[in-house]
């Protein structure tokens, strides 16, 4: 894992956006894996600005999001489909038919998991996967204890994740308790991974990731076994980190 340390959230967003823009420009048919949550919002803003100012095109780009809440349709402002449209897709020249997110309202949720996994494979896999990290080390919605062998699957969200995500809802009771997520094995199949980490609330997770062992009780630790991971983390996230352990 390569660590790029930056000052703050804005610098993290800038660096991450530059990283992605360069890839898209060099490889216009790239398959991007995308994340929701607070972490990538600044990055998405800069991608939009760059598209408007410099004309970076997403016409041939395909995207696969990590996860979606079960029970929320794409019209629900709290769904991840809605989030992605609002925060990114509506402002780029991307073909929406090439933006994939698991459906949280599929009649047969198990079949939807299989379909999504196959869809990624049929498209040749994810070239660059953008990730955030949960305070408990989750990636996607793979909570502690998830098998490293997992493909796209249904999860019960951990109480801490529901609490953390309540900030996007009117109240905690409205946060769905289940989601569909790419599995750990799905994420590990990406050719390259870009992990963004910002803020003091992620400091503990950053310590466990950098200095801890690879264990299913801290899902992000599996990234140590991936050949091509870049972490862009700000000072608050890396404070006190022993760079060489
Ligand atoms: C989002 C996702 C999650 C978030 C994580 C961090 O699609 O899969 O793993 O990346 O919960 O969330 P934020 O960025 O809100 O701190």
TrEMBL record:
Its EC number is 3.5.99.6. Residues 9-224 form the Glucosamine/galactosamine-6-phosphate isomerase domain. One of its GO terms (molecular function) is identical protein binding. It catalyses: alpha-D-glucosamine 6-phosphate + H2O = beta-D-fructose 6-phosphate + NH4(+). It holds the Pfam family Glucosamine_iso. CDD domains: GlcN6P_deaminase. Pathway: Amino-sugar metabolism; N-acetylneuraminate degradation; D-fructose 6-phosphate from N-acetylneuraminate: step 5/5. One of its GO terms (biological process) is glucosamine catabolic process. Keywords: Carbohydrate metabolism, Hydrolase. One of its GO terms (cellular component) is cytoplasm. The active site is at residues 67, 136, 138, 143. Gene3D superfamilies: 3.40.50.1360. It is an enzyme of class 3 (hydrolase). PANTHER family: GLUCOSAMINE-6-PHOSPHATE ISOMERASE (PTHR11280:SF5). Catalyzes the reversible isomerization-deamination of glucosamine 6-phosphate (GlcN6P) to form fructose 6-phosphate (Fru6P) and ammonium ion. NCBIfam families: nagB. Belongs to the glucosamine/galactosamine-6-phosphate isomerase family. NagB subfamily. This is Glucosamine-6-phosphate deaminase. It comes from Neobacillus thermocopriae. The lineage of its organism: Bacteria, Bacillati, Bacillota, Bacilli, Bacillales.
